[in-house]
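=== RUN LOG ===
request id: a7f3
mode: sequence -> structure
chains: 1
length: 329
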Amino acid sequence: MKAVLQERFGPPDILRLGEIDQPRAGAGQVLVRVHAAALNPYDWHMMRGDPYAARLMGGMGLRRPKRRVAGIDAAGVVEAVGAGVEGLRPGTPVLGFCTGAFAEYACAAAELVVPKPERLSFEQAAAVPMGAVTALRGIRTVGRARAGQRVLVNGAGGGVGTFAVQIAAGLDTEVTGVCSAGSTELVRSLGAAHVIDYAREDFTDGGARYDVILDNVGNLPPNRLRRALTPTGVLVANGGGSPGRVFGAIGAMLKLAAVNAVSRHSLRPIIPATPDGPAHEDLLAVTALIEAGQVTPVVGRTYSLAGTAEAMRHVEEGHSRGKTVITVR
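=== RESULT ===
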């Protein structure tokens, strides 16, 4: 089968389209015939092998990648099921966390895929897993946003931000989205009551206060973000760090914990959505919101499987509008 292969850590140029044996579903797994896959910042961290501290923790490999085929977000059709799998059968359209998603076939733990909502194309469905689950956790689980509160989403036009704005609006909160000028109309259409162009206005100047801030950008220090919180406000941090950093998001989380220890505000990181962690209930929750028409994935650019390296360069630039998706079939 065709797959995007990674033999070493490095920039997008190290990715190459090649042939590899088709995987087989083991016990508790499903084999998915991939129709589309989405890219995340997680993918370029795994591609580059940074932050370097994560290599020492064993999550990605020390000298070379643990996983030869890149990608985790996928949508497709179940091709085969392993022993002990219930509720899924060959022919079922699904979305979820599939290790090695940038390929014609990929395996996943059965609890990490769920049926695809009928109203979504495969490209839209591939955009859901990491972006929507992270947004759900940021707004509802960690931020605990509720009706009547003021919620600010920094990075509202990106992969997580476009989901977060819709989820927060669905909770009857007053949503403010911070994004680039080119995404203001999109963010407003998703349910934001107010939209701030970050190049023209500083939302941390103290002019407005928010009950919940979801920061998807990680370019501002926690002490500065606190200036935009109400006295009992919550800052939810999603990621932080850029390619080439020693500690990256790990360092950002440690800094957040240090500030939180002496702050009257609540500063909380999101437990990341990954193919190695629990996500079944969250996947069911976001697909229920999609089925109800409260959330619709935003797909920005699409690329072919052969164009995955170019797609990764686009995601690394940090200005993606919605999700960037690879069309496999």
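=== NOTES ===
The longest helix spans residues 129-142.
Residues 243-251 have pLDDT under 50 and may be disordered.
=== END ===
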